[in-house]
Write a structure and sequence with these properties.
It is built from five helices and two strands, in the order H-H-H-H-H-E-E. The chain is mainly alpha-helical and 202 residues long.
């Protein structure tokens, strides 16, 4: 069962996205104040390119809702200039064409950035899974190697004391176990206790 998300983290995330949307919207307003205040219609091309920059920033840092808000604002701003320069034939044709094409290009930019972010996140998860699989494999190899050495020691030494000391020595090298106690029982009675210590004083 998945744990519920931390409310503090959720609030911080939503607050960051909200502030990002507000700041980028403020940037759009500044661009429009600059163009409108310059009284130079030729600067309209600059505004359109700056809008693309805003949408790139939105694609990188903002959420879906903020991206839609910014796309709507910049699209409306483009059509605002179409209406503003309606009496200038050459400029209004260019502005109309730009305003018509702009939302599709801007959406494509944001969507591409979004897909790249998803692909990056997926790749990071896959790399984490590979790292975990490697750790699991190393653990299994170590366990199998330890088991193999213990079985070799059992075949080579028939003395219980010597065998147990040999096993503790192997475990100390492989798993950090330096002391052990072996109790041999038969019919509910303790027959023998064997202790072994490696590298430690008793």
């Amino acid at each position: 069962q998945r744990e519920p998300p931390d409310p503090t983290i959720l609030f911080s995330s939503y607050f960051f996205l909200l502030m990002t949307t507000i700041l980028l919207s403020f940037l759009v307003a500044l661009i429009n104040f600059f163009i409108y205040g310059s009284h130079n219609p030729q600067n309209y091309d600059i505004a359109t390119h700056l809008y693309y920059g805003v949408m790139i920033l939105a694609g990188i840092y903002d959420g879906h809702r903020g991206q839609r808000v910014l796309l709507g604002l910049t699209t409306l701003a483009n059509w605002f200039y179409v209406a503003l320069f309606y009496n200038q034939t050459d400029l209004v044709l260019v502005a109309t064409m730009v305003a018509t094409v702009y939302p599709f290009i801007a959406y494509f930019i944001v969507r591409t950035i979004r897909l790249l972010k998803v692909q990056r996140s997926t790749t990071e998860k896959q790399l984490q899974q590979i790292d975990q699989a490697n750790l699991d494999l190393e653990t299994r190899v170590r366990d199998l190697s330890t088991l193999f050495e213990v079985s070799e020691a059992a075949n080579a030494d028939v003395d219980v004391d010597g065998l147990f000391r040999r096993i503790i020595k192997i475990l100390s090298e492989r798993m950090g176990m330096y002391r052990g106690t072996l109790r041999i029982w038969k019919d509910g009675k303790l027959l023998r206790t064997v202790q072994a210590t490696v590298g430690l004083t008793e």
